[in-house]
Specification:
It comes from Actinomadura spongiicola. InterPro entries: AAA+_ATPase, AAA_ATPase_domain, ATPase_AAA_core, ATPase_AAA_CS, P-loop_NTPase, TPR-like_helical_dom_sf. Belongs to the AAA ATPase family. Helix content is about 50%, strand content about 5%. The chain is an alpha/beta fold. α7 packs across α9, α10 runs parallel beside α12 and α14 runs parallel beside α15. The longest helix has 22 residues.
């Protein structure tokens, strides 16, 4: 493991030579090896800004996402690295992310494709999770043939041309499917939903339907789920935009992709336009060393303002980030992302409600969700899903042995919870504390003060 002194020396070297790609790559890899996942994520992003088409860097970024529980972001980061392309590890990262999202059928061929290219990536425990029997045998050449025949491409949206990976459709999820977080839901209703649902009332006060809200908080706490639920509440179109839909290696293409995305949202209004990991597209311009990257931020700001009066009316822009302190302050001006909404880790009642939702379609014994919620302090929603998945897999194996369904019990969930080791929330809180306590002169992070023993001003 790299010691802190070596990492600090590498940081300084990158600061002195910001355009040195091999140096940035090495720093990002060292952060990843040291388990400094948020630092690794930011370092890989900065390196990708210098080389957007680098599959090795994209794989490193995806692994940083995966290890933080940001499975959707990991899949999105590798959306342009198809089966058999890039490093073999890319296939393994995609497979793990797909399995964590519950799509085991799509994960299997991606896993086999990776192992066929590099047998050292084989993982017996993961194979069991994929439903592969112990002692199975599939030689390298048949494995590759099987993988390349059956591997599905990662999903892309209905758009054509650059940025065509944006996901578009209508959401069937509503706030009823979001456990807890009543204050967050109310903020979204007032800022985004009610102006569309009651336009005459809001017009009387000079308010139009549109604008932006930035959701921020620890990874895995439901920011993307909330965005889908907001679209479902309205019955509006939902467009989810990832980094791979916008960033392009050719100068000017990223800006055109961003403009095309907003134009598509304007044609489909009312529409919820959701930018995940927005800090990668809206980073502070003062931190950027390349004019091209600053121009992407300028284009984003122009699109948020609308090219002409009322252009964005009916376009509800939602963004999510784990690192709001890296977002350019210009995005917080009125009419842009002028409302920051903290999506906290779930408290005990919310954890119990999340567990109940996750277990809706599972055969159940008398379950004490409250006891399980008390045993999962510090778990994010994604961590709780992992607990339920682990418990279900163990119970399914027992059911196969006896030949009949067996109900899930409190003991099953408690056993799975004891085996889980969540870290994302604790790591995020440690980073957030530094900003709240030492870089909060404007008061923008006052909402977080109660989480660290302070009082809101």
């Amino acid at each position: 493991m790299t010691d802190r002194g070596s990492l600090d020396a590498l940081r300084e070297a990158v600061r002195v030579s910001p355009d040195n790609l091999p140096l940035r790559r090495h720093l990002a890899e060292q952060f990843l090896d040291a388990g400094l996942l948020m630092d690794a994520e930011n370092a890989f992003r900065e390196a990708l800004a210098l080389a957007p088409g680098d599959a090795d860097l994209a794989t490193g970024l995806a692994e940083a996402f995966l290890r933080q529980g940001k499975n959707g972001a990991a899949i999105s980061a590798l959306a342009r690295v198809g089966p058999g392309e890039g490093p073999p590890k890319a296939g393994l990262v995609v497979a793990r992310a797909l399995a964590a999202e519950g799509d085991v059928a799509a994960a299997r061929p991606r896993y086999w494709e990776a192992v066929a290219r590099d047998s050292s990536l084989a993982d017996a425990e993961f194979e069991t999770r994929l439903g592969l029997p112990p002692g199975h045998s599939l030689g390298p050449e048949p494995a590759m043939a099987h993988a390349l025949e059956d591997v599905p491409s990662l999903p892309s949206g209905p758009f054509t041309g650059p940025g065509s990976g944006a996901e578009k459709g209508s959401s069937t999820v509503t706030f009823a499917d979001v456990a807890g977080m009543e204050q967050v839901k109310q903020s979204l209703r007032m800022k985004l939903l009610l102006p569309v649902q009651q336009p005459e009332l809001f017009a009387a006060y000079g308010k139009r339907a549109g604008g932006g809200v930035m959701l921020y908080g620890p990874p895995g706490c439901g920011k993307t789920h909330l965005a889908r639920a907001a679209a479902g509440e309205l019955g509006a179109a939902f467009m989810s935009v990832g980094l791979s839909d916008i960033l392009d290696m050719y100068i000017g293409s990223s800006e055109r992709n961003l403009h095309s995305t907003f134009e598509a949202a304007r044609r489909n209004r009312p529409c919820v336009l959701f930018f995940d990991e927005v800090d990668a597209l809206a980073a502070r311009r003062a931190d950027m060393n390349r004019a091209h990257n600053r121009q992407i931020v300028n284009q984003f700001l122009a699109e948020m303002d609308g090219v002409e009066g009322g252009a964005n009316e009916g376009v509800l822009v939602l963004a999510a980030t784990n690192a709001p302190w890296y977002v350019d302050a210009a995005f917080r001006r009125p009419g842009r992302f002028d409302q920051l909404v903290f999506v906290p880790p779930p408290d005990a009642p919310a954890r119990a409600a999340i567990l109940a939702l996750l277990c809706r379609e599972v055969p159940l014994d008398e379950l004490d969700f409250r006891a399980v919620s008390e045993a999962t302090d510090g778990f994010a929603g994604a961590d709780l899903k992992g607990v339920v998945d682990r418990a279900v897999e163990a119970k399914l194996q027992a059911a196969i042995r006896v030949g009949r369904p067996l109900p899930l019990s409190t003991a099953d969930l408690l056993g799975a919870a004891r085996a889980a080791r969540p870290t994302a929330v604790a790591e995020w809180m440690g980073t957030a504390r530094n900003y709240v306590m030492h870089a909060n002169e404007s008061g923008v992070w006052d909402e977080l003060l109660p989480w660290f023993g302070g009082k809101r001003r």
